[in-house]
Amino acid sequence: MPISLETLTAPEPDGSASGLWPTNVKRVGGELTIGGVPASELASEFGTPLFVIDELDMRQRAAAWKLAMDTAFSDLNGAKVFYAGKAFLSVGVARWMKDECLAIDTCSEGELRTALAAGVPGAMLGLHGNNKSRAEIELALDSNVAHLVADSLAELALIETVAAERGASASIVLRVTTGVHAGGHEYISTAHEDQKFGLSIASGAALRAIEETLAAPHLDLAGLHSHIGSQILSLDAFKAAAAAILELRATAAATFGYVIPEIDFGGGYAVRYTVLDDVPPAPSHYADALAASVRSHIEATNLTAPRVSIEPGRAIAATAGLTLYTVGTIKQVQLEEGSRRYVSVDGGMSDNIRPALYGADYTVALASRCASDETVVTRVVGKHCESGDIVVKDAALSADLAPGDVLAVPATGAYGRSMASNYNLLPRPGVVAVRDGSARVLVRPESVSDLLALDADA
Ligand code: LLP
Prior knowledge:
single chain, alpha/beta, Lyase, Ornithine Decarboxylase, Chain A, domain 1, TIM Barrel, 2 domains, 9-stranded mixed sheet, 8-stranded parallel barrel, 21 strands, 30% helix, binds ligand LLP
């Protein structure tokens, strides 16, 4: 299919206007600056590839979710926002979230210890996972994690054992599957039946888990949880899932005489990756849709309103971040329908697996200087030994692009560094936070020496 330059042209970095770039990005003297720091300065000081996070932008997104939920649930029983650390977590980011009054959702010992290292108290922590180790459960109990999210009947039994050993009581949130299937890609849709997460409402496993939790001497049933997938634009999908989980709460109240105090609606709120993507609903639209579902539930059942929580990850981190790469080899490839320019950069699938894993599309701009008027259809590719190692599939980039130019790929703040690998033994990039004209390292860039340090024979 011929590629039209018109649809490919990435909007110039313009702060929040296109919804693709961090708010504090602009061009100064032709060069992209992020949080007041020129791209070329970041590239030369910290090297490329480099993840750059606009601190104020990320904090503002976190604060916007908190405000939207507090407002929507002000006449109900209040709301809590957990930042889903899997999108990107470091001690610095956990501190930002704590400052903005967000809780943190973790899903491994590594994430939990990172949040604890930031001084986040157990009351503001959740722990997920479909296969938690005994050590992870012990750590969660010892840290008084408020949302210990149980994913199976077997896990409930293990948590009961570990809690009993400690003479403690575990605050359990049961992850249930509502049957609602939403979100962009099959691999990131998590509420249909044929997948590994949660306790199915349809099969009766969820109700049985409620019964077992209530009967267990060392388990406290704090809540129910549902997460229906990622990158979900449809408010109706959230409403359908909310209706299903709230109905389960009503069934539990009628069957066991116990009103489950909390409901967590999970994450999955969408962001914009390219100009071709729809503009996602604002946090207040998602929050209002969830609050409307809760209101109809309490009207229909006369139960007290649950305390509600949500777990946005991408919607807080993605657009706050971008990746800088340096241009290397440039190659013109002849195709039957014309020719395509391949521009290789110094990273690729080891710092952003999403194009290879989900077919995700991104956009890109020349960051270190002004582009020429003429643009060329370009594929930006990485330096890995895989032909699927694509950074940006189709982009309109300056015709005079040259080795050494710095490119910026926006919307990589979520699931970039957190899913990075050492494929081909590439060191993983560092992450810097920029704010008010200065840059601060959040995560050090790895070096080949770091990799060799793990090699027992080196
Ligand atoms: N809560 C739970 C229980 C989750 O499993 C997830 C994501 C979230 C919250 C946050 O979802 P978000 O708001 O960020 O969409 N690596 C993939 C997405 C898989 C995420 C898995 N769980 C990606 O790069 O798109």
